[in-house]
Amino acid sequence: MRVPLAACLLIGLSACSEPPPDAYVTRTMNATAGEPVGTDARNEACQAQPGRTIAADRQVLRAREVFCGGWTQPAARVLELAGTASESDLDALASSGLWRSWLDQRVACGPPTRTTVTGGGSARLLACTRRAGGWPHVAIVTAGPSGPVVADGVATSLPVIERLATGRTGGGGAAAGGGSRSAALELAVARLSADAFGAADVSRYEQLMNLGRDLNQTENFAAAEDAYRAALSVQERVLGRDNPNTAAPMLALAVNLSNQKRLSEAQVLLDRAGTLAPGAADPTMQARVLHYRGLHALNAGDPARAATFLQEAETRYAALAPAATQSQENDTADLLADPVQQSAILGLAEAKRNRAVALSRAGRAQEAAEVVAEGRAVLRRAGLEPNMMVGRALRTEAGADIRLGRTDAAATLLERAAGRFSIAAPGERPEAVTLFLAGQQRLRGGRRSEALAAFRTGAGILRARQIGLPVALVVPYLDALDQEAAASPGSAPALRAEMFGAAQLAQRSSTARYVQQASARLGVSEGNPAVQGAVRGLQDADRELRDLFAERDASGANNAALDARIAAAQQRRSEAESQVAAAAPGYRQLLLAAVDADSVFRALGPQEGMLTMLLGPNNGFVMSVRHGRVDARRIPIGEEAVAALVSRVRRSSEIGAGGVPRFDTAAAQELHNLLVGPLAPSLAGTETLVVAPDGPLLALPFGMLLAGPAPAENLVGAPWLVRQFAIVHVPSPQTLVTLRAAGTGSTAPLPYIGFGDFVPPSAAQYARSFPADRCGRDARLATGLGRLPGTRAEVQTSRQLMGAAPDKAVLGAEFTIPNMRRQRLDQYRVVHLATHALLPGELSCLPEPSVVASPPGGAPSADPAFLKASEVLDIKMDADLVILSACNTGGPGGEGGGEALSGLARAFFYAGARGLMVTHWAVDDAAAALTVADTLRRQQGGATSAAALRGAQMLILEEAGRSIPAAFAHPYYWAPFVLIGDGRRAGTPGGSAQAPSNGPARL
């Protein structure tokens, strides 16, 4: 299970409580134009404007804030104080008092150093480090025209601080106004490398950390990963890879990787952060390392170890938190001013909540309930009870009740938690998750109508936000609908149609990650500027809403004006979504959206039917759409049992050291009996079957299922499903609806271009792409991706058959990604990539599905040889068919390969492909060449893509035992190719499964 973090923990001291989130400077998002005050040490133009007054030992005559380089938060704060400014006054202000206490809460400073400022005035310089982020910071005390001046800011702001402190703002240089040079500035540059970074770097870092926090809170872990990875990159570039303060984004990145079950990657980062944390400026960092190790252990399924880590984290946090928040005898609600103490309190409460989760999973539910109550009490005593954290605490408490068998009590707590989430982040994923959990408990308690009410409210949120939930949360909704249909036969058709839509609310973690990453990267891609701008607008709208929700959460009271702002922001987000859809018609391929049965029926032709399924932990459902009617049947076994059957079929289909294995006919028939047989009456008359598989079934060609018994020793004449239907696979029903809505048939002027016989990267290039310290296993797997010489003949034969020019076969060292991009792929109706596809699960250090090409000459690493799914988004295509003929969804470590293939297919559909023809395992060269060539020949003759592929496969089956050996009836030879996407073309409505009029060829 994924473990979202409290918002404050993810960015440490720059957290979500008072004082303001940046913890050092005021959040001045709507700052007005101020007085020009020259440039900083990086030559970034700066302005000053009136600022927030803070506590000081003397009267504050004037407070100003400095903004540099377009930064939206102050780079420095300058306070002019009343009174004398003798040497002893400067020493006292720099060493003690209210201002110094305020400063110490936010930065870690060395002892004051006596120095001088421009013009020769005496000053005290403090070299500091910001506790949040570890950025170099300076503070200075000097004599100004009206008395002492105290100031602090990022190191590069010191020239501006000096000018404001001395009243010398007429010029732009460090010595503006004449007089002696600034010894303070020279000292700061020498000690702090002030010219190594600027305010914009700090601003970018903080924006990325805040974005990561927001995305994590809405449980979008893949997009949060991208934000934290970028923040870490900024910090490492400026501070250095081994700077202890990089531990903060490193930990946040680690836990978001862990939440996606990328456990080995997360462990490497946790270990690095653990080494760096003792030297970090943030005092809570070592506690956070233990905390995140605990969360990682939870994700790894080790609750006992998690509880140990989390209890150690509590001890560390408690040492930094005020005793009043931990004692039953001191029940106060005073807001704390010290951000370190705030971070420690929030960390302590969240560590207790997470430990309660671990205890509950370890079978210690009663103890878990006590611990989560302790966490709630810590927040209450500190006066820090944000709705998001309280909602999570209530949800954790409900989890303990569930394990104690207190179903009704758990449901009540979950409904209360959903109410909290509806205030903190209305209409977002945490609220929907909690409603589904509440519905599950109501169903267990026999209160089906209340369960359905909760499920339907949560489903409305998921559809509006186009997000999904884990399968295990969605299956109870289908169970409730199935029970209701049995109890109310008259309502059964409508309820089964609702089941069809409900099943699409489930999403697998890998699929969600690929889709979220692809969607997020459109906003920073180098593709269509209109798309980039529209996607960024949508991202900005989402961020605005999150800020408003946080503001309402912090206010803790009804606020009609704020509610009106939220409603207006929601409307802007809706408009932004429309702008994205207009700029990028294929954008819907990157959304995990549900479509209703009526939409699917309208997209299907008269001879087409759809088969879709959902596999839960203990049971599942299979559904069909045909003639405007949904039929649904319960599958009596769960995902693990289905996966075992798929594994048996796959193992008996792929060639091994002993040659082609004996095919497991029993497993193939059992899968047919589970998935297709129960719906056979409703699929009668179907010629083309569109299949939307789920989970492990994504790695299985459905054409090889057996509709009846067949002897494994003689598969000639076996009743394969492909004999009954032309079969099209789709990642989801929505994929088909979107493809069909985009129109039919390519308008590209050229018939074909093919790429093959790649030259693999060298061992040295692979080693640079997959460092041995964290990707050694991946390096070994990657170097095993040998050359595919058979693909040269495959591409050449296909080119000749399609009548394409000789230069439309790009082979060997010429097959590079830059060369491929230069070909203007939108000019070709068929694009053929005869090469390896790497699917995450095979290579954990390559998080995206990728196509492998030859590395360009002189490439320092293997990276330029990988065409990643996110890069496919920038390619413009207009292809009826993209052929990827060396894919393997069950390769080394290929668990989840089918899901990865689904993500890659979505990227090609976004780019403009209508269909993707791929292989599910390494195929025989001769069979591959024949299948590809005969499919293209039939398609040239007017057949649909689906019918063309079926015809090529039937050719092998019909000729097995006649003109070719009977062994070719084994699925190894004919079954690996599948068509993903749209099986139709212009002028062929209905998806006819007939062979073209020129009849089947003979071998």
Automatic annotation (TrEMBL):
The residue ranges of the CHAT domain are 666-982
Gene3D superfamilies in the record: Tetratricopeptide repeat domain
The entry's protein name is: CHAT domain-containing protein
PROSITE patterns, per database record = PROKAR_LIPOPROTEIN
